[in-house]
Structures are given as C-alpha cells and as structure tokens.
Design brief:
mainly alpha; three-stranded antiparallel sheet; binds carboxymethyl coenzyme *A
C-alpha cells in the first residue's frame, strides 16, 4: 500500500506538492513538511507551535482531549501510586522500569554525584543576598559546565550518561543552596543515607546546630509533585533545552536555558503566581471581581493556574494532586487556611462559569502544587525551583533522545518577513 500523503496546492503559483504523513504509535499523524520550502516555495507559519511537531519522541504521550498522560506508556496515575521519583527518572531516561539490581545501581550512581564542587559553592557569594533562587539556579546550573567539563563532549555517550547523572543528582543540592544563600544560612551537605526527596528537604530546612526531623507527609507530597512534574513532552522549557543543545551546546548550559524558560509565569512560574493571585484576592467575597477581570477582553489579567495549551479536559496531574491538596487542607488547621478557602471557592466558581467551560479552562497542575507547597511551608520563591528539580529528569531524557536521533539538526525556524522592502541609504547634503 502506498504511503499516505497530503496534497497541498499553492493557489497563487499553481504549484502542487505531495507531503508524506508520519504516523506515531498513538495520537494524530504529522505532515512531513521538510520539503515544503523546496517544493512549494513557501513555509508554514505557526507562532507558538500550535500545530507543529518538532521531533519524533518515544518518551511521553499526552492526549489533551481525553486527559491522558503516559511516561514511556505507563499512565501517570499508576506511577503516582506505585513508583518514586528516581525510578521514574530511570524510566524516562532508559525507556523501561528498572529491575531491583538496576535500581540499586542507578541509586548509587546518583548518590555518588550529589555533592557539588567546593569552587561552585563559592560562586553563590557573587549573587546579591536577596536574589530570587531561580535567578541563582540559571547561573549556577550554567556554571556546572565550567566545573565539570570532563563530561561535556556531547558526541561521547559515556560523557552524556555522566552529565545526565550529575544533573539529576546535583539539582536538589544546587536548589537547596540557592535557598540557603538567599536567607543567609549555612549550606548543608547532602546526606547519602537519605532518599532523594528526604535529602532535598534536609538540605533546605536543616541547620547544623539543631537535629532535624523529616516530616513524612512532606516527603510523600513532594515525591508526588516530583513524579507529576518529571516530564511533559515538548513543552516550552523542554523545547528550549532541545533547541539550545541542537547546536551542540553542552547539557549543563542547555538545562540552564530550560530553567530560564521555566521561570516565566505562563509556564513553571505559575505555581508562584497562583499564590500571589490568591493573596491579592484576599477575601472569597472578592472572587467574582477577579473572575470578571479574567473574562474581560480589555484586561490582560488571567486566573493563574487555569488553562493549558494541550489539555482541553482535566489535566490528569491536577486530578491526582487535587486529591492530595484537599486531604492536606482538611488535615491542616493552619495559618494558610483562609488562602486555601479562597482557592477552593475560586476553583468551584471557575469550574461552573460559562467562560471557563466554553474555553475548556480547568485548573492545571500549578494551581494545586502551589497550594500544597505553601501548606508544606516551602517558601514561595522556591516553588518554581522545585518544578525545575523534577523537570530536570525530563529535560535530560529528551536531550539524550535527541542526541541519538539521526534526524536531529540544528533548530532554525524560518520567518515571514514583514519589514521594509530593500531601499537605498539616503545621501545627505554635505
Ligand atoms: N484565565 C482567563 N482566560 C484564559 C486563561 C486564564 N488562565 N487561559 C486562557 N484563557 C483564555 C484566553 O483569553 C483565550 O480566550 P479567547 O479565545 O476568548 O481569546 C482562550 O482562553 C485560549 O487561551 P490561549 O492564550 O490562546 O491559550 P494558550 O494555549 O496559548 O495558553 C496558557 C495556555 C497555559 C499559557 C494559558 O492558559 C495561561 O496563561 N494560563 C495561566 C498561566 C498558567 O496557569 N500556566 C501554567 C500552565 S500548566 C504548567 C506549565 O506549563 O508549566
């Protein structure tokens, strides 16, 4: 049977082209437009990549209409219930769940890389004391390539594997140090007898002078948040990592670019923005006013933590995390209670509102993760940093996949030029 194709005709020139259809294992096919420019003398125009696939990938699958998210074929609900973040990282990186021995080996490789170079620690003091931890993350993760250049030959698979392990292992240490620096407390070294999440919480909250007790609820909640945020196919920050490394840039520099992209409020910065929004609303009686603003076409205001480019149904991650959020809030009679009540009322009102229903705007993962992190006492400016720790697993898995992809070329989008046509430089009178 002939390969399926799509025929396109340029009505202006009369040129016709046959474009192959690429089918994946699931989801809609892609139209292979690589020869469009040479065949038709035209490019596609797709700001924001609304209809453009940038690669073939075997890592993560999303069906936004059905609200489905799979990592390497495994439903996120099952991973959230039965797995842990390091196992999920292994799965994302290598494509299969590890057996007991493989998990043990992976665990010890990661543990062997949790410390950071002492010189890198001194790097922190160059930042202002009140710097946002995400700003520090961009700088320090980028600087890893200055300290670990023994693993930056991206053509060498062994170097690639070492860099991948280093990034996953060091990210919690770098993140916790960013926070410690911003509050003027001593950095804590990792303690490798602890699990990945416990270690991070200890480096964040312990101080050398006092024994530290790990809160099991915090570990459980953070483990879940890490699993849910580990990958999300070709989102903005992952695409940034792929684009940056498509030039052959090393993975530390490319992941630093991904962190910069993640910081924006339309992406990972939304979990922090949700709390700012709830604080600004202040009182459940004011919700209607803010919802009206979000619906007003003349106002750029948006409800943070609502809507998603791909999910036009409930974000499956939000469904899972919502349950944890509600049970945490029920258990906690904390000072954060008024904020949580505003959040729950906002969720109720928006879900019943015609505007949000018509546009299929549901609360997304950031709406609930922000609230959970707040309930756990995580400082606001660390919310997106936590997202970055988790997403490092996905960034690195996507980078590894890209480096082995024979179709991979430097990313170089085209444009439709709308500036002045060629004109002559004016000759001024002497
Ligand atoms: N509040 C009010 N209206 C909204 C919102 C919102 N949060 N999100 C989308 N809309 C409206 C938008 O005005 C537009 O209306 P109309 O069709 O009348 O012009 C329609 O819904 C479609 O919006 P869009 O901007 O074309 O959608 P997009 O796919 O380009 O944007 C988004 C997706 C996530 C950037 C957007 O929904 C948004 O800004 N949400 C708030 C920020 C947020 O929560 N981001 C976290 C995303 S999930 C995790 C992550 O990626 O990090």
């Amino acid at each position: 049977m002939a390969e399926p194709t799509v025929t396109v005709t340029n009505n202006e020139t009369g040129k016709t082209g046959e474009l192959p259809l690429i089918k994946g294992t699931m989801g809609p096919p892609g139209i292979d437009i690589r020869k469009l420019g040479s065949q038709m003398g035209a490019f596609t125009y797709d700001p924001g990549f609304m209809s453009t696939a940038s690669c073939r990938s075997a890592i993560t699958y999303i069906d936004g209409e059905a609200g489905v998210l799979l990592y390497r074929g495994y439903p996120i609900e099952q991973l959230a219930e039965h797995s842990n973040f390091l196992e999920v990282s292994y799965l994302l990186l290598y494509g299969e769940l590890p057996n007991e021995q493989e998990m043990e080996d992976f665990n010890s490789i990661i543990l062997s890389h949790t410390m950071i170079h002492e010189g890198l620690r001194r790097f922190y003091t160059g930042f202002r004391h009140d710097a946002h931890p995400m700003a520090i993350m961009v700088g320090v993760v980028g600087a890893l390539s200055a300290f670990y250049h023994d693993s930056t030959d991206v053509a060498d698979p062994v170097h690639r594997a070492i860099s991948a392990h280093r990034l996953i292992a060091k990210m919690p240490t770098i993140a916790a140090d960013s926070y410690k620096y911003s509050i003027g407390q001593p950095f804590m070294y990792p303690q490798n007898s602890l699990g990945y999440v416990e270690n991070f919480l200890r480096m964040m909250f312990a101080i050398p002078s006092t024994p530290f007790e790990i809160n099991p609820i915090a570990v459980q909640a953070l483990e879940l948040i890490f699993i849910l945020h580990a990958d999300h196919e070709q989102n903005a920050s992952t695409s940034t990592v792929r684009l940056a490394s498509s030039s052959g840039a090393n993975p530390f520099a490319s992941v630093a670019a991904g962190i910069a992209c993640l910081w924006g409020p339309a992406h990972g910065g939304a979990n922090e923005a949700v709390i700012h929004m709830l604080e600004e609303i202040e009182d459940p009686k004011q919700i209607a006013k803010f919802v009206a603003r979000a619906k007003d076409k003349n106002d750029s205001y948006r409800l943070m933590g609502f809507g998603h480019r791909i999910y036009k149904n409930y974000d499956p991650r939000a469904k899972i995390i919502r349950q944890m959020c509600h049970s945490l809030l029920r258990e906690q009679g904390s000072e954060n209670q008024p904020l949580f009540e505003i959040a729950m009322e906002l969720e109720r009102i928006a879900l019943e509102d015609d505007y949000f229903q018509a546009r299929k705007l549901y609360p997304n993962v950031d709406f609930y993760s922000g609230i959970i992190l707040r309930a756990l006492g995580i400082p606001l400016n660390m919310f997106t940093v936590i997202f970055a720790i988790a997403r490092t697993a996905g960034w690195i898995a996507q980078w590894m996949e890209m480096m082995e992809d024979e179709e991979q070329r430097i990313g170089r989008p085209r444009q439709v030029y709308i500036g002045e046509a060629k004109r002559d430089y004016p000759r001024r009178q002497e």
